[in-house]
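Long-time lurker. I teach an intro course on protein structure, and each term I like to show students one example going from raw sequence to a predicted 3D structure in token notation. This year I'd like something fresh instead of my usual example. Would anyone be willing to generate the tokens for the chain below so I can use it in lecture? Attribution to the forum is fine with me.
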Amino acid sequence: MGKIALAVGALALVLWALTVPALSWLYDDPAERGQFGDAFGAINALFSGIALGGVVFAILMQREELQLQRNELAETRAELARQAAAAEDQRRAQLLSAVITGLAARYRAQVDRSNSSERVGLGRIGDSVAQELATQLNQAIGSAVDELHNLGVKWDRDEELDNAGPAAR
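-- Reply from a regular --
Happy to contribute to a lecture. Here you go:
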């Protein structure tokens, strides 16, 4: 397409450059050359009007394209905001999940220590500590699960405790 436009432009330039010598050869008198040029005044006005119409049309098309671009930009901003909110929710859910997993592991470790305490005769002390820790763990897990559900995340407490090991039950 670009080569064709370049060839047409070059041809027009060559024809325009050849008009002066051709008119000088056809008409010796400058007044006759002027009258010949005046005969094309209407065509000149026609092409000027067409060019002006083309400029107005191009401006209108650009305005429409800019409006479409603005609309697309607004939609992109809204989508980015939704993605940022989803990423924040996911970050919070991962943080809560890590907290729950850490509490379950802490509980499992405490139960293991309690079981080893029973072997050396400290059963009651180990049981009371394990019971207190189990209560705290259940409260923390309950709060965290509520927060996860508020975020729209499905989390199964029993499954998480199973993953933490049999001692976490």
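Some talking points for your students: The chain has five helices and no strands. Residues 73-169 form one domain.
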